[in-house]
Amino acid sequence: MFDNQNVTLSIPDHLKELSAQILQENVQIQRLKSEISHTIIGQQYMLDRLIIALLADGHVLLEGVPGLAKTLAIKTLADALDSQFNRIQFTPDLLPADITGTLIYNQKLESFTVKKGPIFANFILADEINRAPAKVQSALLEAMQERQVTIGDQTYALPKPFMVLATQNPIEQGGTYVLPEAQVDRFMLKVVLDYPTMEEEKQIIRLNIQKSVLKTPEKVLTPEDILRLRALIREIYLDEKIEQYIVNLVFATRNPAQFQLNELKPLIGFGCSPRASINLALAAKAHAFLNNRAFVIPEDVRSIAKDVMAHRIGLTYEAEAENISSEMIVQKILNRVVVP
């Protein structure tokens, strides 16, 4: 009995050490937020999600009407990181080779040489990603999942860290293409943005009137810092009950009747993939880190669930006819599935 007691006490001691380390490392994250806030007014929800994806090694899709600082927020985040950043403006005439690179014949050497594309950077801004056709969007699939690119018969590893931050406009239909489900599933988070508050908009006006050129943030984190923080976040404790809660939430999208959600069955065409479970666990750990905790609680999972799960749910025509969104379905699942 005494030995068992010592075993159980060893876990809190480990968590205390981890908590102290998290408190120390979080100072850099607060500096990062401070630097970004000099340029971005409001949109705290979006900034938190960008940082969560950064720490959890995931990609982000930002969706919102024009003028909500989607592109500016991503560029500001990249400016605050001492790493390589490339912006790709997606257009209907873009080719896959314009992103990944291509083989060029060298007449002097009488051989082909590789010209790497803009995808070879730590942070990629895929601006208005839904303006390019599917074959161009699919050029990102290997890069986003495998962190590598194949050019000709050679495969090239992408730099570490590697992160794609994409934007899309939901209200404009002309000249846009729906993202393939396989690509959408590779985004850890899809963040839907709303308008700023009246007070925030007044601050935005003042900032842009006073300064013709916005301040460039100071470099806060290096690629080595980001990789170290990611390793630390993976050490955050995830209890088996929380793990089961994550699995229950995801399985409720595949088999709603199992969780007494029969009304959702005709609304869901297909449920979340296993990537949802993996990303929900990682994002919950990153959320716990931002709240100075060395362990995940149910609120960490619940706070990030819509951003991880909603874009992975396929809606039926019946759901669209009734104006039911995937976010509403996730909310119903959160309300019904028992919290540990």
Helix-strand layout with pairing:
Blueprint: H1 2-37, H2 44-56, E1 60-63, H3 70-79, E2 85-89, H4 97-100, E3 101-106, E4 111-116, E5 123-127, H5 134-137, H6 141-146, E6 148-151, E7 154-157, E8 163-168, H7 181-184, E9 189-192, H8 198-210, H9 223-234, H10 240-254, E10 268-270, H11 274-290, H12 298-309, E11 314-315, H13 317-321, H14 326-336
Parallel strand pairs: 1-8, 1-9, 2-5, 5-8
Antiparallel strand pairs: 3-4, 6-7, 10-11
Helix pairs in contact: 2-11, 10-11, 11-12, 12-14
What does this protein look like?
This protein has 340 residues and is α/β, with parallel strands linked by helices. It has 2 domains: 41-226, 3-Layer(aba) Sandwich (Rossmann fold), CATH 3.40.50; 237-336, Helicase, Ruva Protein, domain 3 (Orthogonal Bundle), CATH 1.10.8. Helices cover 48% and strands 14% of the residues. It has helices at 2-37, 44-56, 70-79, 97-100, 134-137, 141-146, 181-184, 198-210, 223-234, 240-254, 274-290, 298-309, 317-321, 326-336, and strands at residues 60-63, 85-89, 101-106, 111-116, 123-127, 148-151, 154-157, 163-168, 189-192, 268-270, 314-315. Strands 2-5-8-1-9 form a 5-stranded parallel sheet. Strands 3-4 form a two-stranded antiparallel ribbon. It has a two-stranded antiparallel sheet with strand order 6-7. The longest helix has 36 residues, at 2-37. The chain is globular. The two termini are 27 Å apart. The model is unreliable at 1-10 (pLDDT under 50).
List the defining traits of the structure above.
Helicase, Ruva Protein, domain 3, 340 residues, two-stranded antiparallel ribbon, 2 domains, 14 helices, alpha/beta, disordered N terminus, 48% helix
